[in-house]
Design goal:
The protein is mostly beta strands. It has one domain. The protein is built from two helices and twelve strands. An eight-stranded antiparallel β-barrel has the order 1-2-3-4-12-11-10-7. A two-stranded antiparallel sheet has the order 8-9. Strand 11 and strand 12 form a beta hairpin. The longest helix is centred in the last third of the chain and has 7 residues.
Length: 166
């Protein structure tokens, strides 16, 4: 089972200069985990998808933005886990800091796991380990069933995000 932690997140940031939350791992309190998509104007404009799983925001950078049309595929590159507090973060990360640029919330809401095996939900941790998540987003812009599928391409952290047919 993948172990989530915030070590990579903490090591990449100097909190004397950035207003990003330091955060900590939190136990799952809500029955409905949250997601956030942040538009990040860093060295290259991209969107960051973050899913609440086991007390952290498991994160992917999506260079061309989320898929909004059925069967549309988007590259999603898994990045370091972020603290749950990051779901509310908007602001400018100063130059010469990791991820320098403006971060704005593009969409936010809840999601639920729709991946099943033998009629029972597959835990999200197991889905991550297997490299295939199937989730239903309940947001203002992201609404409906989506799949995140780990690719066998050269990069070990490369996934595809696609909107599933309803």
């Amino acid at each position: 089972m993948p172990k989530h932690n915030l070590i990579d997140y903490m090591e990449k940031r100097d909190f004397r200069y950035t207003k990003e939350p330091q955060g900590r791992i939190k136990k799952q309190i809500s029955e409905h985990p949250i997601f956030v998509i942040q538009k990040h104007a860093a060295s290259h404009l991209h969107y960051d998808l973050r899913l609440q799983i086991n007390g952290v925001l498991v994160s992917w950078a999506i260079p061309k933005g989320p898929a909004l049309i059925e069967s549309e595929k988007r590259l999603a590159i898994q990045t370091e886990d972020h603290p749950l507090q990051y779901a509310n973060f908007e602001g400018t990360i100063p130059e010469r800091n990791y991820g320098a640029g403006t971060v704005k919330i593009w969409d936010k809401g809840t999601f639920f796991n729709i991946k099943e095996k033998n009629g029972k939900p597959v835990p999200l941790e197991e889905c991550l380990k297997q490299g295939q998540l199937e989730i239903f987003f309940e947001g203002k812009k992201m609404n409906g069933a989506y799949a995140l599928i780990k690719t066998k391409m050269s990069g070990k952290d490369q996934w595809l995000l696609l909107k599933m047919k309803q």
